[in-house]
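hey team, just a heads up i'm posting the complex here instead of the shared drive bc the drive is being weird again. everything in one block, sequence lines first with there labels, then the predicted structure for the whole assembly after. its two chains so it's a bit long, scroll down
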Amino acid sequence: MVLGIDIGGTFTKIGLVNRQGVCRGSKIIRTEAHQPFDTYKERLKTEIDLLLGSHLERQELVAIGVGAPNANAHTGDMERPPNFSWGDRVPLVTTFQEWYRVPVSLANDANAAALGERYYGSGKDLEHFVVLTLGTGLGSGIIVNGKLLIGAHGMAGELGHVNVVAGGRQCKCGLRGCLETYASVTGIKRTIFELLSVRTENSPLRDLSFNELNGEMIANMALEGDAIALEAFKRTAAILGAKMADTAAHLDPQAFILSGGLSKAGDILLTPVVESMEKNLFNAYRGKVKVLISKASRDQAVLGPAALAWMHFERASP
Amino acid sequence: MVLGIDIGGTFTKIGLVNRQGVCRGSKIIRTEAHQPFDTYKERLKTEIDLLLGSHLERQELVAIGVGAPNANAHTGDMERPPNFSWGDRVPLVTTFQEWYRVPVSLANDANAAALGERYYGSGKDLEHFVVLTLGTGLGSGIIVNGKLLIGAHGMAGELGHVNVVAGGRQCKCGLRGCLETYASVTGIKRTIFELLSVRTENSPLRDLSFNELNGEMIANMALEGDAIALEAFKRTAAILGAKMADTAAHLDPQAFILSGGLSKAGDILLTPVVESMEKNLFNAYRGKVKVLISKASRDQAVLGPAALAWMHFERASP
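-- predicted structure starts here --
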């Protein structure tokens, strides 16, 4: 059994996963990214120990895989993650290795998600695809010739930070107009608040604070026909689809797989995304690039880190 | 010896190249992309026969490599090339095979250029880089883990058609605001004419028609301090550098290599490109991505197609 750990801006998911990708026990805890890392890690250890204790003998744990934002697979650290107050270098691999004395592998959260789709999900039969995780931020993982694209410095696939509008919305990374400031749960919340500022329709959205509002609420309101929520999805999808066309012009993929909180909106997001992507695609790619919604449910986010752990464990085994 | 053929929107270059990448004889002819393909191909055959006749016995020719815009390596055709009036499918591989009865390989012109840099040029010691050919249009070739990125349908690396401005300049491909409508020889000419329309400075540029003007003239005027030419380079570089930052966020490369007509401007282009790229780079990549100007001279454009021919010849040889 391996332990998969998916560290997101809002939630951390932990799960015990067998070689076939079946999750034997899991837990979701809040990340509290703005509390110190030491507080978080002690809380996390308690939860992991409880999970291990109730599901297996310690010696059955053979490896740990961790997915986290801005993770560098080469150093084993999270490096300057813009949505976390955990410092410039967060030593994840050494932390877990000291605790559990098993091999620990780290990947960018969205890269891990791409591996999860490749091994256990919608990417099982695909050799060339891009996973976009639309959560607190926008992460991405790129599969080329069946393998994860790593890049020269271990940091390929930061599509959340391609530019949408020069001088656009301030991003936590320091740049302006980054894709994730528009196309993510936080991005659509910003669009909702922009719309509430310039338009006059009444809407239940006017009763919610920025921090109260979440992606599921916006999706539900759009499903009920709320004009502001519908317009927010339309604008988000138009921007995301256009940028997916640009990504296709780099990689010529078979498919995009959308996952994360915003993807749970289903067709409200998917239909206008496909429309915008097709409109913006270079003619050589038109009609050739599928857009899929990930079938992974929330606790299956651990499957990506688990795939990473199994991959490294099997490579290391004689 | 192999024959390398580089088909550009303005010029076609042919050359005989040995295994070490030494060009033993070459010729440049005008492409006349708006004449019928049959006229062009007969003219091309005459020139190739002359070149072969004066440099080697027919049996010494072992393979042909062809680089051309919108070439599909899988089908052997150019497919709907936007800058050519040669129809929807231009059967290059079958044409050359019928004529010379040797193996013929085809690649997108910029993909071939990337192979040329990888085997014989500035990319010899690099595993991860992107070649941008700034000529009539903007082509690109992507090298990942030392190999050409091909994509799912044989069409990866069409960076000339990523979007710069929604609803921007009309591109020959049918889209609007494509990168090549700004960052290419044609793109900078369009910028010159835009500047001449909105500004009042006198400039020798006011004595030239759009068709007379070429990249070398603009570079020379910029070197002499012409305000319009300098501003055109500044705007071109700002856009190109920003889009290179987006490409880095996909691929995490070690370097970009700029080639083609516009790259001959050297530092007038390079300095503001690097400045704009660094300003727009996601922090994880800052200071890590080199920008090089290709050392390949105009007739060395055949080295890319020649590298392609040698690659396929050696793979096919027992």
